[in-house]
Design goal:
Blueprint (H helix, E strand, L loop, with lengths): L1 H11 L2 E5 L9 E5 L11 E2 L3 E6 L12 E7 L10 H7 E3 L8 E11 L5 E6 L4 E3 L2 E3 L1 H9 L4 E11 L2 E12 L7 H9 L10 E5 L32 H14 L17 H15 L7 H4 L3 H10 L11 E5 L8 E4 L22 E4 L14 H12 L8 E6 L1 H15 L4 E7 L13 H11 L14 H11 L6 H9 L3 H18 L8 E7 L26 E7 L12 H11 L11 E2 L4 E4 L1
GO molecular function, one term: 2,3-dihydroxybenzoate-serine ligase activity
InterPro entries: AB_hydrolase_fold, ACP-like_sf, AMP-bd_C, AMP-bd_C_sf, AMP-dep_synth/lig_dom, ANL_N_sf, PKS_PP-bd, PP-bd_ACP
Keywords: Phosphopantetheine, Phosphoprotein
């Protein structure tokens, strides 16, 4: 379709795209196409007498930029399927947004609404895949691939290798004008647009896509993937390199690995890096920091690190977890965990941060001690402060916190100020204070708001959680903790780990609900996800999802908007942007003048 749109536009000058299912009398939306839209054409806006809704699993409206299911209402909606009462009741449902009692049609198509009001088609709801705990839309990856100048057609599917039980993403690519873009080139292209969980692991170049006699894609005729295209292949040369190659083949689910092949170019990510690190002690008798693969991503580099055996043992569930040693004398960056208690998400920053910066993750003691139940966010802050001062007794300090971690980082800053210490950097990623009435609201209301705010997906027919315990379980499932190989390995040593993490998550949610930040004389770098969180109704019920909500509690708030949703902020696609913001905030050039202003580059300051 994109290639056809480009050809037609070059010949006729004007082209209009119409979208609609038969059940809504054929056409429902319209989009006059421009050449700039041809690579991934939106389906446009509704026609006259037509209403379109982007709704979640509970049929509640979603904010701009969020992906949901498309429902269509209005004069064109049919009465139903003749002689198929059950199917009619499933697909034609009452329109709660219409005053006339009419029905709306559930299309089964996944879409999102752009800021200009245009609808973008993402894919079919039944085509979603779950990759390492993340729900993935193959069509969204295909659309991103089609934006590359060398790609004419692309198909992305889920693939499960016979020797590797994890579902992987497989991309079939047809190049333009006979070109064969390399997987490395396309990975780099996607990493600028998509989170790591949406980067295909396997790639198959094709001259053309197989089609059925009526011209549709014949998915059953797509060839099975072979070995990944390689640069000049160098085979393992000694026993250690052979062991590492076997480990990489198992972790990544690929057949051939050269000693100079890059772990991340082969499809590795922070979760699989954590699995590799978890295997090192048993296989090689050495424990390495989780960030090792970011500095030594090849078999040659890893073998050298293992031979030096210069690392100190690190418990992956430790409270103060070293991610990188850095240069002695350089202030470390302390990264505070989100609600589930793990700090592994910050691994993605290591490849972009100044290599001189030491980096530590602060993780919940509840990961190691199931009985650990601090009484407040302030108590957590005092505990973490005591631990981080064992490696940095004096300031200036650098802190970053994502989600719940932002509340804790702010509270640690309050403790440091009380001691007369300087905080050079306080960065908060999509972290918002609870309102006073949140503590007095019924638990079920807070839980419902949390589900909407965090964008948690409920399976069709799955009831809305009503207790914090049910919410904690849903959070653990959403983050894919059950699917993490490193967690599965830890479960062999401690079978109750996931249950303990669920209880700890539940306790963190209770503490956040009761927490009231203290006003600080402190500048804050605040990074907001462009897909803004919402409580799914009255946004003022429990949390004010605006960065300005921090204005009573800080001196200056420097706002940066990241083209991401809440859960993807620490994906590798955004690591360069986040690292640049952290670097800038620690230089004199980034000092703020305390005025209220907005800037054209997407940055705003609030005093």
């Amino acid at each position: 379709m994109p290639e056809l749109a480009t050809q037609l536009l070059s010949r006729v000058g004007r082209l209009t795209q119409l979208y609609g299912p038969t059940e809504t009398t054929i056409w429902s939306t319209i989009m006059p196409l421009q050449l700039t839209d041809a690579a991934a054409p939106p389906i446009g806006r509704p026609l006259l007498n037509t209403r379109v809704y982007v709704l979640d699993a509970q049929r509640q409206p979603l904010p701009t930029g969020a992906i949901g299911e498309l429902y269509i209402g209005g004069a064109g909606v049919a009465k139903g399927y003749r002689g198929k009462r059950q199917l009619t009741s499933e697909r034609f449902v009452r329109d709660p947004f219409a005053d006339d009692g009419s029905n709306m049609y559930l299309t089964g198509d996944r879409v999102r609404q752009r800021r200009d009001g245009m609808l973008e088609f993402i894919g079919r709801a039944d085509a979603q895949l779950k990759i390492r705990g993340h729900r993935v839309e193959p069509a969204e990856i295909e659309n991103a691939l089609l934006l590359h100048s060398q790609v004419a057609q692309a198909v992305v599917v889920g693939h499960r290798d016979g020797d590797h039980d994890a579902l992987q993403l497989l991309a079939y690519v047809v190049g333009k004008h006979g070109a064969t873009p390399s997987p490395e080139l396309l990975r780099a292209h996607l990493q600028q647009r998509l989170p790591a969980s949406m980067i295909p692991t396997l790639w198959v170049p094709l001259q053309a896509l197989p089609l059925t006699p009526n011209g549709k894609l014949d998915r059953r005729a797509l060839p099975s993937p072979g070995a990944l295209p390689q640069r000049a292949h160098v085979a393992p040369r000694d026993a250690l390199e052979h062991q590492l190659a076997a480990m990489l083949q198992d972790v990544l689910g690929i057949e051939v690995v050269g000693v100079e092949d890059n772990f991340f170019e082969l499809g590795g990510d922070s979760l699989r890096a954590a699995e590799m690190a978890a295997r090192f002690p048993q296989t090689f008798g050495v424990e390495l920091p989780l960030g090792t693969l970011f500095h030594a991503p090849t078999i040659v580099g890893l073998a050298e690190v293992i031979k030096r055996n210069a690392r100190t043992p690190n418990d992956p569930l430790g409270v103060l977890l070293p991610l990188r040693a850095g240069t002695p004398g350089t202030p470390p960056l302390f990264c505070i965990h989100p609600v589930v208690g793990l700090g592994w998400s910050y691994l993605t920053l290591l490849g972009q941060l100044d290599p001189q910066w030491p980096v530590y993750a602060l993780q919940s003691p509840g990961l190691s001690d199931p009985q650990h139940r601090p009484e407040s966010i302030e108590a957590i802050a005092r505990d973490y402060l005591a631990r981080l001062r064992t490696v940095q007794p004096q300031g200036p300090y650098r802190l970053i916190g994502w989600s719940l971690g932002g509340l804790i980082a702010h509270a640690i800053t309050a403790e440091l100020h009380a001691l007369g210490e300087e905080v050079e950097l306080l960065a908060m990623l999509d972290s918002y204070p609870h309102l006073e009435q949140a503590a007095s609201l019924p638990e079920s209301e807070n839980v419902r708001a949390s589900v909407h705010a965090l964008g948690l997906h409920l399976a069709p027919g799955q009831p809305m959680p009503t207790t914090v315990a049910e919410l904690a379980s849903l959070l653990c499932d959403h983050y894919g903790l059950n699917d993490l190989p490193a967690v599965r390995q830890l479960l062999e040593q401690r079978p109750t780990l996931l249950d303990d993490m669920g209880g700890m998550t539940q306790h963190h949610l209770h503490l956040a609900r009761r927490h009231r930040p203290k006003p600080l004389d402190q500048d804050v770098v605040f990074v907001e996800a462009s897909v803004r969180m919402t409580s799914g109704g009255d946004d003022t019920v429990w949390v004010d999802y605006r960065p300005q909500a921090w204005r009573p509690y800080v001196r200056n708030l420097q706002l940066h908007v990241l083209d991401s949703d809440h859960h993807s902020m620490l994906s590798s696609a955004h690591s360069a942007t986040l690292s640049a913001l952290l670097h800038a905030a620690t230089t004199k050039a980034a000092q703020r003048d305390g005025s209220i202003a907005t800037a054209s580059d997407g940055v705003a300051e609030y005093a």
